[in-house]
Every structure is written in structure tokens, then in C-alpha cells.
Amino acid sequence: MKVDVRTVGAFQENSYLIVDDTTGRAVLVDPGAEPDELIEMVRASGATLDAMWLTHGHLDHIGGIVGVRRVWPVPVSMHPADLPLFARGETQAAMYGIPFEQPDQPDVDLAHGDVVSVGSLDFDVLHLPGHSPGHVVFRHGTTVFGGDVLFSGSIGRTDLPLSNPAHMEESLLRIAELDDATVVHPGHGPKTTIGHERATNPFLTGAVRVVRG
Description:
With 213 residues, this protein is an alpha/beta fold. The protein is built from 7 helices and 14 strands. It has helices at residues 35-45, 65-71, 83-87, 89-96, 165-175, 194-200, 202-205, and strands spanning 2-8, 13-20, 25-29, 48-53, 76-78, 108-109, 115-118, 121-127, 136-140, 143-147, 150-151, 154-155, 183-186, 192-193. The model has no long low-confidence stretch (mean pLDDT 97).
């Protein structure tokens, strides 16, 4: 498996390209903005793009969908509990003065326990709500594409519309149960490991509580 990343948009969101190097098939995780950058990343990989997977429906994770689909009209997968957020992407972007093209509704509904595949690579879908009601992560072995649940030294916000601090606390307990060696590719900031975060992240050590709106 090869992983490439572009940090895009006003919110500096990480958009990931996962390539199965045995088959040359690829998937984009959270195409957040700057579709030209994401298209260049796919083309530079030499892989064939099969799909786009969304950890959640916030505007900074979906803003590149329309531009990428003009080149590759591939299916988009998301947990349906995030549809209200997804549908308000354009409205939310206007509030920030950010150019945005509203994507069509996702093609595939994700659920906890699903297995999604790219080439020969299988990923478990884990529903970890809190930052948003339909937030999921994608796990392959000791690699996780974690969206906005867990960051290096921090966590995703829980004071946004439809966020739920109690659910986030439960999700953090669940993700902290993964193996110490698990590498987390987050939606913002540098990659990290579960072991490092369990030892140092104040939201996992108990030093800081999740913000309640």
C-alpha cells in the first residue's frame, strides 16, 4: 500500500490517496478542496481511481469532489447520518467566503462493520461519532485514516452543529483500544500513532475533558 497526501484549502485539510501497488487501483479519502491538486496527485501516482471515501460530511472534507468527478466520475461513499452536514456545505462555505461547489448526494452509504476495498486492500469501517454524527474511520491492519476524531496532541471539535461531546468521549475510548503501533493519518496535522497519543494526548490521558457546547 502506498499513501500520498495533499494538504488543501483554507482549513489545511489532509486529502489522502491510497494506492494498492499490486493492482494499481486507488481511492481518494476526504477530497477536501483544490481539486486540481488532487487530480495531479492521482495522475502522478499512475494509478486508476476507483472511488472516493469520506470520513464525514464537513465542508473542508468534501469541497474537491465535484472537480475530481469531472475527470473521474467515481462513486462517493459516506455514512448517511452526515447527510445534513454534507447538504449544507455550500451554505457553510459562503459564511466563510470560501469558493465551493456543492456535490451531489453520495452514492454509497457506509455503516459500522462494513468492509470497503480498493484493489486487493480491505478496510474496516468503524463508526466513531462525536465530531459529527456519521463520522467513520477506515482501518487496514495497523493503518487508520482517521478524519477528525484524533489528531496529534488533540482531537476534533465538539462545539459544532450536530457534534456530540459524549459520543466523542466514547469514540476516543474505542480508538484508543487499537494497537499501539497503529498509524493514524488524521484529517489535519501530522500523522501519529495510537501508542504516542495514548501516552501524551491530554484527551486520552484524562488531563483534559472533551469540550461540551
